[in-house]
């Protein structure tokens, strides 16, 4: 039913839509964030590194077209790939800039002949009417999705991680994006300090009712973040390997079948990663999760089919 994976993966969905495997090209748009420029705060979210989750993006000094071309060349040097790619504006808040700057960068990405989709990562509180109209225009040119950094539905945790907006802001953002025909992907962090299994699953259940896709991101403690200071002070512990795999299996078992799974773990840059160190073995993590899902032989209580 879902190809080689026992869940509705992004890889499967893209092959269905574009008839071949599609790869993401991470782009650096040169944006900042209201949580860093002093508008809301100057420190950023407590877990966010200096690169704003854009550790694998190209240098900002390169034009968008150059970044795309370099990204494609790098992929083709490393593996056999086709000619269809996603332009992914990843670092910081990619709708937080004057509208003319956003338009120039988005349209430049969409103009590349090998780009078949645009993906924009942002905050739910940075989607004004002018931005929504621009995103609608982009979506009329090529499919456009917006990734929203929610992380948790629990206000106490949100305050701790310095998210700086309330849950209703996320709800409105999802509704606004759906009203213009744009798909939403929601970021959720697994293993946030102070959250147990049920608190995490409450977030997954909530998000599953609204979102089109989900990224389940393991909490990484990275050098140079305030989270690292709390970790070293012994204020929390990161998840163990077995604990994390079990939580992901539990999360997938309660998500609706139509929700596309964009990520089951995450890539923490090894030069910055403090904990959990086992997360650097990404292939082992994914293989273990896939194995356990197949052993349970269930998705929402229904048997899946091997292809």
Account of the protein in words:
Helices cover 38% and strands 16% of the residues. The chain has helices at residues 10-18, 64-78, 99-111, 129-141, 155-160, 167-179, 197-208, 226-232, 241-254, 282-296, and strands at residues 23-27, 85-89, 115-122, 144-151, 183-190, 213-218, 221-222, 260-263, 273-275. With 307 residues, the chain is α/β, with parallel strands linked by helices. Helix 9 packs across helix 10 (282-296). It starts with 9 loop residues before the first helix and ends in an 11-residue tail after the last helix. Mean pLDDT is 92; it is low at 300-307. It has a seven-stranded parallel sheet with strand order 1-2-3-4-5-6-8. Strands 7-9 form a two-stranded antiparallel sheet.
The biggest beta sheet, please? 7 strands, parallel
Number of helices: 10
Note the run of SSEs as H and E: HEHEHEHEHHEHEEHHEEH
User: Radius of gyration, Cα only, in angstroms?
Assistant: 19 Å
Strand order of the largest sheet: 1-2-3-4-5-6-8
Q: Give the low-pLDDT segments.
A: 300-307
**What is the average per-residue confidence, as pLDDT, rounded to a whole number?**
92
- How would the global form be characterised? globular
Strand content: 15-25%
The N- and C-terminal alpha carbons lie at a distance of 7 Å
* Total beta-strand segments: 9
- Structural class per helix/strand content? alpha/beta
Helix content: 25-40%
Give descriptors for this structure.
9 strands, 307 residues, alpha/beta, two-stranded antiparallel sheet, disordered C terminus, seven-stranded parallel beta sheet
């Amino acid at each position: 039913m879902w190809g080689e994976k026992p869940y509705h993966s992004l890889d499967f969905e893209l092959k269905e839509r574009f008839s071949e495997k599609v790869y993401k090209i991470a782009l650096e748009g040169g944006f900042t964030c209201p949580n860093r420029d002093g508008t809301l705060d100057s420190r950023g979210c407590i877990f966010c590194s200096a690169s704003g989750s854009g550790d694998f993006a190209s240098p900002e000094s390169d034009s968008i077209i150059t970044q795309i071309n370099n990204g494609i060349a790098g992929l083709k040097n490393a593996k056999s790939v086709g000619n269809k790619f996603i332009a992914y504006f990843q670092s910081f808040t990619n709708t937080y800039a004057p509208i003319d700057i956003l338009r120039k960068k988005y349209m430049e990405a969409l103009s590349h002949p090998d780009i078949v989709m645009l993906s924009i990562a942002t905050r739910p509180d940075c989607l004004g009417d002018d931005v929504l109209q621009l995103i609608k225009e982009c979506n009329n040119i090529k499919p456009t999705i917006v990734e929203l950094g929610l992380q948790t539905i629990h206000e106490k945790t949100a305050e701790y991680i310095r998210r700086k907006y309330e849950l209703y802001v996320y709800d409105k953002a999802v509704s606004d994006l759906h009203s213009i025909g744009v798909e939403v992907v929601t970021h959720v962090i697994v293993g946030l300090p102070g959250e147990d299994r049920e608190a995490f699953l409450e977030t997954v259940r909530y998000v599953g009712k609204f979102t089109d896709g989900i990224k389940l991101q393991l909490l990484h403690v990275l050098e140079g973040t305030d989270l690292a200071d709390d970790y070293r002070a012994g204020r929390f512990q990161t998840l163990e390997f077995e604990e994390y795999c079990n939580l992901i299996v539990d999360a997938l078992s309660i998500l609706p079948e139509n929700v596309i799974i964009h990520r089951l773990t995450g890539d923490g840059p090894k030069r910055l990663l403090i904990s959990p160190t086992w997360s650097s073995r990404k292939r082992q993590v994914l293989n273990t999760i896939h194995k356990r899902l197949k052993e349970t032989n269930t998705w929402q209580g229904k048997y899946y089919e091997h292809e």
